[in-house]
Design brief:
CATH superfamily: P-loop containing nucleotide triphosphate hydrolases
Order of helices and strands: EHEEEHHEHEHEH
Shape: globular
CATH architecture: 3-Layer(aba) Sandwich
Strand content: 15-25%
Number of domains: 1
CATH topology: Rossmann fold
Helix content: 25-40%
Largest sheet: 7 strands, mixed
Number of strands: 7
């Protein structure tokens, strides 16, 4: 089983690929994590928990780190709980890494725990933010898949092959 990071060129649609992957596998697997949606306001995203879609928060990533932490603080326990490795989980899916966790220490620590666990993980990151994930890449063996190198129709199949050593 692998830890995978999908690296996407900016605005290439990785979120749509992850959402499709999630929809296809969620009836078969217990998937935890979070998904993001880019909002129309520049710098704004919505983060939603996979197991509790009603738990979502709009974040303004153009703010200072302290302001981002204040925005997520009312929800942090729910996000930490969603990412607990002490539950039955078949797969963690973490959409748009490299932004929020840089400003929220507890979330960053939990993401390190998730990637360090024996549970398969798929994360997504925009190409220009890969360097922000050095806190993971230097500690944990992670397979990077550059979406520009893979046909969109083959991404789901490649993810399954990589996750389960097929």
């Amino acid at each position: 089983m692998y830890k995978i990071l999908l690296v996407e060129p900016e605005n290439s649609g990785h979120t749509l690929i992850l959402h499709e992957f999630l929809e296809n596998l969620s009836p078969l697997l217990n998937i935890k994590g979070f998904r993001t949606t880019t909002l129309e306001k520049p710098g704004h995203i919505k983060m939603s928990l996979l197991s509790q879609p009603s738990v979502n928060i709009e974040l303004d990533l153009s703010q200072q780190a302290a302001d981002i932490e204040k925005q997520i603080e009312p929800y942090i326990e729910k996000f930490i709980s969603e990412l607990s490795v002490f539950q039955v989980v078949d797969l963690f899916l973490l959409d748009r890494l490299g932004g929020v966790e840089q400003s929220v220490f507890r979330l960053k620590q939990q993401i390190i725990t998730v990637f360090s666990s024996r549970i398969p993980v798929i994360g997504a990151v925009q190409a220009h933010e890969v360097k922000k994930l050095n806190y993971l890449l230097h500690k944990i063996p992670i397979k990077l898949i550059k979406l520009e190198d893979v046909k969109e129709s083959d991404v789901s199949l490649q993810l399954i092959k990589e996750l389960y050593d097929l």
